[in-house]
Amino acid sequence: MSEEPEKAAWRGGPSQLVNLPAFVASAVVAMIFFVVGPRFPEIQNYIMLGALIPALWAGWKWLTVRCHRFEISTERLKMFEGVLNRSVDEIELYRVKDTQIQQPILYRLFGLGHVILETSDRSHPKATLNAIKDPREVGEILRREVESLRDKKRVREVDFDESGDSEFGDEIG
């Protein structure tokens, strides 16, 4: 039996909108430095240099979001993050139990949202695809790939409650 190669179904990353508070705060602090600087001519250059700090912080925030990427393939969800040190977390798609779409009002205005996954993966019981474009479409792609992989691998998810009953009402014993 030949295995089909894994193919990417969707790739994306969070929007820079998640950095809006950091960008606004950086701009306000930099403006304060520019307003205060001319009032002290003898140390004006040092004060103006201080405006570089919030600009560097905003640049770092931009870069961390830019380096955060998600990939849904036919077998796994891969989450890449890190600027200097890169980490890749993977969740097997057949472990996805439930998805939830959240669209806060500000994100909805820009067509963004979060896709939150509940999984049976021990290292990632909850995974979030944060501030992505077209979250409903991504959720649908994810659902389709999860069902396809479960059928292919003949895997089913069965939940048990605290009493030991399965979702089908059969007593374990």
Question: Could you explain how this protein is built, in words?
Answer:
The chain has 173 residues and is of the alpha+beta class. The chain has five helices and seven strands, in the order βαααββββαββα. It has helices spanning 20-36, 44-50, 52-66, 105-109, 135-153, and strands at residues 8-12, 69-73, 76-81, 87-92, 96-102, 112-119, 126-133. Strands 1-2-3-4 form a four-stranded antiparallel beta sheet. A three-stranded antiparallel beta sheet has the order 5-6-7. Helix 1 packs antiparallel against helix 2 (44-50) and helix 1 runs antiparallel to helix 3. The two termini are 37 Å apart. The mean pLDDT is 89.
CATH topology tier name of the largest domain = PH-domain like
Number of strands: 7
Number of domains: 2
Roughly how much helix do the residues carry, as a percent range? Answer: 25-40%
Task: Tell me the structural class.
Answer: alpha+beta
Percent of residues in β-strands? 25-35%
Radius of gyration: 23 Å
User: Separation of termini?
Assistant: 37 Å
Sheet of most strands:
4 strands, antiparallel
Mean pLDDT: 89
- Please count the helical segments: 5
